[in-house]
Known about the structure:
By secondary structure, the protein is an alpha/beta fold. The protein is built from 16 helices and 17 strands.
Amino acid sequence: MRGRAGRIGFNRDVSDAPPPGLESIRLHDTRRRAVVPLEPLEPGKVGVYTCGPTVYAPQHLGNMRSQLFPDVLRRMLLASGLDVAYVTNITDVGHLTDDDHDAGDDKVEAAARREGRSAEEIAAHWTAQWAEDRRLLGCLDPDVLPTAAAHVPEQIAMVRTLEAGGHTYRIDDGVYFDVASFPRYAEFAGLDLDELEATGRVENVAHKRHPADFALWKLSPPGVRRLQEWDSPWGPGFPGWHIECSAMSIKYLGERFDIHTGGVDHIRVHHTNEVAQSESALGIHPWVSIWMHNEFLDLGGEKLSKSLGHTLGVGDLVARGIDPLAFRYFFLQAHYRQQQSFSFELLEAAATGYRRLVKHAVAARDAVGGDVTGGDPAVVDEPRRAFWSALADDLNAPQALAVASTVARRDDLAAADRWALLADFDRALGFGLAGAADPDAPATAASDPRIASLLAEREAAREARDFAAADRIRDELKAEGIEVVDTPAGPVARLT
Ligand SMILES: [Zn+2]
C-alpha cells in the first residue's frame, strides 16, 4: 500500500486570526450517528475527501448539493486557521448502470458508444462542464482532482493487498470482496445482512457468495475489447467503482484521514464498501474519523424533469437569467442534513434575498473603499461569534445566513462595521462580495459577454492597424453608453 509518502501539501487561510466562535468545531459523524468534536489526526491539519461525479452527463442541482456543502465546510475549516487538504475525484471508469449489483454497462463507455466518441472525450467534456458548474456556484477548486482511469496501478495494488489478506474470491467475471471476511461490514450503515441475503437479487451476478459482495476488479468478457481496459494480475479488465475512492483518498490524504463526505445515497453501498476494503487492506479502524453526508434536494420527482425534458442543472439557471450564486444562497437556507424542496418559486425568493444581501454589502464596501479592518470590536464581536459558532455547530448554515442577512440590513451599523462583518462572513458564504457589483446597476462592461466580445474585436482591429474598424466599434459602444479608454494595461470600458 502507498503510505503517506504521496500525500499532498496542506493549504491554510493566513489572512486572519481565527474568528470568535470557531474555537471548537463539532460535526455529525454518520458512523457514530452523533455530533462529535473535530479532533484532527495531526494537530492543525485536516484532510477532506469528497466523492465526485461520474462524468457521462450533466450534473443535476441535487448532485451539486454534495459539492456545495463540503465547500462551506472547507471554507469554515480554513477560516478557523486549520491547514486543509481537499480532494475530490472524477469517476471516468467503473461506475455501472446497476452499481448496487455490479451489473449493467459502464456509464462512461455507454455514453461514448451512444455518441460515437471516445471514453476520454466524454469524460473530458463532462469533467470541464462540472468544474465550470462548481465555479459558477462559488466553490473553491479542489487541491487535487484525481481520476479513476489515471490511478489504476494504485487500485490494482490495493486489490492485491486484499487478495493476500484473504478478503477476495474470484469468479467468472471478476475479483470480488468477500464481506464475510470483514465482520464489521454491517456496522457502518446499520445494515441487516440476513435480510439482504434473503431478498438480495443474487441473479444479477452468478456465483456471488453473498449479495453484498462487491466487485474489486471486473474482467473484460472473453473476446470483447472494451473502450477502457487495463492488464492486471487477473486478466484484462477494469476496476470496480468503490476501490477508486479508497485508493485515491489514501494516496493523497494518508492511510487515515479526518473527513469523508458524500450524498446520503452513498451510505449503504459505496461508503460501506469503501470502509470494508480500506480497513481490511490497512488493518486499521476507524479508517476515517468523521463521515458527513448531505440529504437530497427534492426536485419534485418527475414533474420538474419532465417539464424540462432533462434533469435540472446549473446551465438551466443561467438560461433563465438566474445567478448561480442565488442557488448557493438557496442551498445555504437549509441545513445540509435536511431534505430541501426545490421549486422555481422558492429559488426566486432566495434570489431576492441574495440580491438584497449583495446590494447592502456593496454599498457598505464602497462607502469605506473596501477596507475590511475598520470594524469596531465592541460592535462586531457579538455578530461574528454568532455567525461562526453557528457554522461550528455542524455547519448550521441557515442560522449563519440569517446572521449575515440581519447584519446587511441593520441601519444602526456604521458602514465600516457592516463591511468588516460581511467580508469576514463571506469567507464561508462564498459569494465573492469583495468583487461583486451592485445587482441593481446596469450590466457592467466586464460582466456582459457581448460587450466583452466587441472590446476584443476592437483590440484585434487595432493590432491589425485597422483603425477605421476600431473607431466604428468604439462608436457602437458609445451609442450604448459605454466609453472605451485606452490605458497602458489595455482598453478599459466605463459606463458614461
Ligand atoms: Zn466515492
